[in-house]
Write a structure and sequence with these properties.
One of its GO terms (molecular function) is cysteine-type deubiquitinase activity. It catalyses: Thiol-dependent hydrolysis of ester, thioester, amide, peptide and isopeptide bonds formed by the C-terminal Gly of ubiquitin (a 76-residue protein attached to proteins as an intracellular targeting signal). It holds the Pfam family OTU1_UBXL. Hydrolase that can remove conjugated ubiquitin from proteins and may therefore play an important regulatory role at the level of protein turnover by preventing degradation. The radius of gyration is 21 Å and the shape is elongated. The chain has 3 domains: 77 residues, Roll (Ubiquitin-like (UB roll)), CATH 3.10.20; 204 residues, Cathepsin B, Chain A (Alpha-Beta Complex), CATH 3.90.70.80; 31 residues, no CATH class. It contains 9 helices and 17 strands. It starts with a strand and ends with a strand. Strands 8, 9, 10, 11, 12, 13 and 14 form a 7-stranded mixed beta sheet that branches. The longest helix is centred in the last third of the chain and has 16 residues. The protein has 336 residues and is an alpha+beta fold. 28% of the residues lie in helices and 25% in strands.
Length: 336
Amino acid sequence: MSVVRLRHPKGVSTIQINLNSDDQKVLDLQQAIFAATGIPPSLQDLKAGYPPTSLTLIPELPVTALGITKGDQLIVTEISGRQTTQSPPRSFGGQTTAVGVNPPNASINQTLLGRQALGNDYVQTEGGVLIHRVVPDDNSCLFSSIGVVFEQDMSAAPRLRQLAAQVTHYSPLKVEVAISCLALSFFSRPPEEYIQTILQPNSWGGAIELAIFADHYRAEISSVDIETGRIDRFGEGSNYSNRAILLYSGIHYDATSLAPTPGAPPDFHETVFPVSNRAILDAASELASRLRSQKKYTNTATFLLKCEVCGKGLKGEKEAREHASETSHVQFGEYS
């Protein structure tokens, strides 16, 4: 049996298959990929080599016809063309709900999608370069960053907002336990009010949502504060084996990924790492330090905001929180 590495929308996996036997068919490979990724054979697009080249998949042919060898990496993507995508149903509090369904009007401005970029800042590590992945500054940066690191999908923000709302609706106690270590009062407002708020595209995400996503993806999320270097670990203590890393500027989240070289295409980037890999976390701290030296952060105690609901001017996060508590207004824009 040979080990083949898969890079797919949910992360990185390995499968075992006999690549040297004519008795093993391409369909057998596809079924093994389906078990690891959830992408059915009829919707699989496989690429191999560098630069990645699509493989011709004829299920009846022997797997040897693909020319794959032990230790090769396959890039697995899902063939587009369907109107919506749906994740396998997941149970919350005894009820089952399809948490990955795009709502009918869930869309994202294609101009914003084009603003995703491989930042100019990166740190060299033994396994490659840890790169600053820039996402749009559109009030959904946390959700877009989560989409990048866990699903390789910049357009996932509307769906991830829906996920946060569904988890809160079906399992509020589970959410409250997940964030208890954050010393936040999750239900200072009724859950229904939180759900209505988080579904609004202009509402910012933060610690509560990071706790929800850490539990959903069964992975630690480490958020590195650029200004202070502090690392907040969501899901810490849950014995998760993997970790994703975000960068936080004070008012904006970006993603990180590990690439073989600075210019490597996104298909070759890793975004989820073993928790045991301390070197990656050290690299993320160094990356934050470089961004700090360039003043790429916002001091949340002094920055100026405007309430986009009533137009009131506010100074700093403290005044914004107080205003939100008094009025339930949660849509803010930064003064330039």
